[in-house]
Amino acid sequence: MKKLPLKLKKNDLRLKKRLPLLPLKLKKSGLPLKRLPLRKLMKQSELTVETGMNYLRIDGNDETDLIAAILAAARQRAMSHTGLNSEELDKYEDIPLAILALCAELYDVRQSTIQGGAQMNPTSERILNAYSVNLL
User: Fold this and answer.
1) What are 15-47's pLDDT values in tens digits?
2) What is the pLDDT of residues 118-128, one digit of tens each?
3) What is the DSSP letter of 41?
4) Which of 52, 65, 113, 136 has the greatest number of beta carbons closer than 10 A?
5) In the chain, which ranges are E strands?
6) Is 78 exposed, middle or buried (0-12, 13-18, 19+ CB in 10 A)?
7) The model scores a pTM over 0.70
8) Three-state SS sequence of 94-117
9) Nearest to 44 by CA among 67, 72, 65
10) Which residues contact 105 (CB under 8 A, 6 or more apart)?
11) CA 77 – CA 97 distance, rounded (Å)
């Protein structure tokens, strides 16, 4: 029997017996064993109001103007935080996720009271900090 690339504990005999059979099960099921091509990742410039509404789980068309404004504000926040323009932001695959997280925060927290300074979503902040050229 071939050695497995995984290091298994002694108690994992059931798993050890099943791992070699996985390719056989896939072959019998008719599924191709080749790797599927990776899906093209979305750029921040390709984010639409519909994408934002799906991400925020909003049904109906009542709030399309609000979501369009929120999406524009989130894009502007990402550009001002990183110091990059729209074309430069398109180079990074995780920027759309940061923008959508900012949209969710702007949609959920629609109050004007700020305590202790404006706080950004920690997920968005970490993603945007990775590409920030505004280091002052």
Assistant:
1) 445 444 445 445 555 555 555 454 567 888 899
2) 677 888 889 99
3) P
4) 52
5) none
6) buried
7) no
8) CHHHHHHHHHHHHHHCCCCCCCCC
9) 72
10) 120, 121, 124
11) 13
